[in-house]
Specification:
One of its GO terms (biological process) is carbon fixation by 3-hydroxypropionate cycle. This is Acetate--CoA ligase. It is an enzyme of class 6 (ligase). It catalyses: 3-hydroxypropanoate + ATP + CoA = 3-hydroxypropanoyl-CoA + AMP + diphosphate. Belongs to the ATP-dependent AMP-binding enzyme family. By secondary structure, this protein is an alpha/beta fold. The protein is 31% helix and 23% strand. The chain has 19 helices and 32 strands. The protein has a seven-stranded mixed β-sheet with strand order 5-4-17-16-18-19-20. The chain has a five-stranded parallel β-sheet with strand order 7-6-8-11-12, with helices on both faces. The protein has a four-stranded antiparallel β-sheet with strand order 23-24-26-27. Helix 3 crosses helix 4, helix 3 crosses helix 5 and helix 9 crosses helix 10. The structure holds adenosine-5'-monophosphate-propyl ester.
């Protein structure tokens, strides 16, 4: 668990908003929205454009495989692009893109419409993709990324985006599981001035991916890359001769899949979370308004990467659904100078900001003088996401960017929920803010904190976070593994969705999400499973066994550390350590950089051979080791302790 700070349950800040209510009032109104949540969500869904209205708001005949707005038909590309093209927003700026190198590009809704149509045409006519086919998108933060996602959605082609900080093994496993026919990548991506060889990584992955017929390469860096004849094509060559065109959007059923997004669990390979179309867009429509209070004149900026769910929901589908103007930034927020982020706010007069605690902590580290160089007074609403926000980070950002007066919150949700579930709601009813808290569940969503038996915990006590009702935006399933979907989320507490987080509900009804209750590690808010890291570690020829845990880090929240047992004939050395760390970077990606490797002779295991990471974590964090009755060999605990001491 990553939270170590004391929670300021009592502190309340009241922003000057005329929709500010006290928490009892909110709870009462909220109760009415969850009492008949299906009707409540129908009201939200009816604000979208449907080719055909649904016959049934929810099909709950086969729980937990709920289907929302059954019989309804719509298209995500139509809703995010055509609808605005056909309105006064045609010439409104949709995306202001800024490259890490300072180049900029503006796309109006008309530009987006033309590009999405041309790309959809190319995918259909040249790549022969049809509704139900899958593609994988492995691109940096360039405008082509949302364009390909929207073009795929237009055709009913299911896409899976792989974060460009992942490497070849991670990429291959996701391509293979989704059975992608085409991979879209770039000749390189910029990160802190360096070029990441995305095409080279793709080539390695595709060698292991028999379903891939073609690779499309977007030119970004101009780097020389290998092009395999008959398989690989440059995007600009494919698109050049395609004129302005119109591709009729597929009429998708509400419950048709829009995308698959892989996310790490505790055991086994990453889970392909499948999101539907109608429920997902309904949740995004609601939350864009309630949480971000999005308005026509706003300039919205979400600093996430589209490779994660935050970018899918709150860079691509949410803001474009609302016809907003948004900033999309390619690179690192503190590159080339620590104030890059603040200069972007000033330059584009960003009014709604969505960022992460890790980013905020890194800004804090550089000092106030960097923010003070810029006018950030345009920001009127801000939120963070991805991990708990410590009250110090909240207060620093609130003072330095929020000027001590605007709404600021920590939105809790996860890949699986599709959109925000618990949050302060400046665009709906705002309750006083508590620094570090997540606020209360959004309308229509019932959350609770329960004990091991699924009974409600007393206020102020730690328990497990659950969602008690189905909600639009919930997963359809885990791709090709419905049993696992049931087992991971719906079996621990029957009838409730188990989020895997520890939480407290305080005396006033505020939720405080404390961190993962399982072995998922949150590095800079990015979700990493121990399994992928450990599999990469044992690919190093000297490593026999490995265990990974997360330990807290002042900026990144958590970082992974590894304990490894070497194969016979190998001895510990600094050089070997470096090699092992590099293997993980190469296989999983730079994002999965292991902070430290400790060599041990034994790992704490149960008698049935399962590694007890809980025990390792307890030793590493100097906390109570707890029940070790199932431990096979107690000496292993001592080994961990000694290894940590020796290398510290
Ligand atoms: O532990 C919670 C944490 O992030 C997890 C979900 O990670 P992911 O699927 O990558 O989605 C992240 C972005 C939506 C959760 O189980 N988490 C996310 N937001 C918060 C949070 N923890 C505390 N406070 C938050 N605001």
């Amino acid at each position: 668990m990553s939270v170590t700070w004391a929670l300021p349950f009592e502190t309340k800040i009241k922003p000057k908003l005329n929709n500010l209510v006290d928490e009892e009032t909110y709870e009462k109104i909220h109760e009415t929205t969850v009492k008949d949540y299906v009707r409540f969500w129908e009201g939200v869904a009816s604000q979208l454009y449907w080719y055909k209205k649904w016959d049934k708001a929810i099909d709950d005949s086969n729980p937990p495989f709920y289907k929302w707005f059954v019989g309804g038909e719509l298209n995500a590309s139509y809703l995010t692009v055509d609808r605005h093209y056909n309105s006064w927003k045609r010439n409104k700026v949709a995306i202001i893109w800024e490259g890490e190198d300072g180049t900029t590009k503006e796309l109006s809704y008309a530009d987006l419409y033309f590009e999405v149509n041309r790309v959809a045409y190319m995918l259909r006519e040249k790549m022969k993709l049809r509704k139900g086919d899958a593609i994988a998108i492995y691109l940096p933060m360039i405008p082509e990324l949302p364009i390909f996602m929207l073009a795929a959605a237009r055709l009913g082609v299911v896409f899976t985006v792989i974060f460009s900080g992942f490497s070849s093994d991670a990429l291959a496993s996701r391509i293979n599981d989704s059975e992608a026919k085409v991979v879209i990548t770039a000749d390189g991506g910029y990160r802190r001035g360096k070029i990441i060889d995305l095409k080279g990584i793709t080539d390695k992955a595709v060698e292991k991916s028999p379903t891939v017929k073609n690779v499309i390469v977007v030119r970004r860096t101009g780097s020389q890359v290998n092009m395999k004849e008959g398989r690989d094509y440059y995007f600009d060559d494919l698109i050049r001769d395609i004129p302005q065109t119109y591709v009729e959007p597929e009429r998708m059923k509400s419950e048709d899949p829009l995308y698959i997004l892989y996310t790490s669990g505790t055991t086994g390979k990453p889970k392909g979370i499948v999101h539907d179309t109608g429920g997902y867009l309904t949740l995004l429509h609601g939350t864009m308004n309630w949480v971000f209070d999005i308005r026509d004149e706003d300039v919205y900026w979400c600093t996430a990467d589209i490779g994660w769910v935050t970018g899918h929901s709150y860079i691509v589908f949410g803001p474009l659904l609302e016809g907003a103007t948004e900033v999309m930034y390619e690179g690192a927020l503190d590159y080339p100078q620590p104030d890059r982020w603040a200069s972007i706010i000033e330059k584009y007069k960003v009014s709604v900001l969505y960022t992460s605690p890790t980013a905020i902590r890194s800004f804090m580290k550089y000092g106030e003088e960097w923010v003070k160089k810029h006018d950030t007074s345009s920001v009127r609403v801000m939120h963070s996401v991805g991990e708990p926000i410590n009250p110090e980070a909240f207060e620093w950002f609130y003072k330095n960017v929020g000027n001590g007066e605007i709404p600021f919150g920590s939105t809790w949700w996860m890949t699986e929920t599709g959109g925000i579930m618990i949050s302060n709601l400046p665009g709906y009813l705002m309750i006083p803010m508590k620094p570090g808290s997540n606020g209360m569940p959004i309308p229509g969503v019932e959350a609770d904190v329960v004990d091991d038996n699924g009974n409600e915990k007393a206020r102020g006590e730690r328990g497990y976070l659950v969602l008690k009702n189905p909600w639009p935006g919930m997963p359809l399933t885990i791709y090709k593994d419905p049993q696992r979907y049931v087992q991971v989320y719906w079996s621990k507490f029957p009838g409730m969705f188990y989020a895997g987080d520890y939480a407290v509900k305080d005396e006033d009804g505020y939720f405080w999400i404390l961190g993962r209750a399982d072995e998922v590690i949150k590095v800079s808010g990015h979700r990493l499973g121990t399994y992928e890291l450990e599999s990469a570690l044992i690919e190093h020829p000297a490593v026999a066994e490995a265990a990974v845990i997360g330990v807290s880090d002042p900026v990144k929240g958590e970082v992974p550390i590894a304990f490894v047992i070497l194969r016979q004939g190998n001895s510990p050395s600094e050089e070997l350590k470096k090699e092992i760390i590099n293997t993980v970077r190469e296989k999983v990606g730079p994002i999965a950089s292991v902070n430290e490797v400790y060599f041990v002779g034994k790992l704490p295991k149960t008698r049935s051979g399962k590694i007890m990471r809980r025990v390792i974590r307890a030793v590493a964090t100097n906390s109570e080791v707890g029940d070790v009755s199932t431990l096979e060999d107690e000496a292993s605990v001592e080994e961990i302790r000694e290894a940590l001491e020796e290398f510290s």
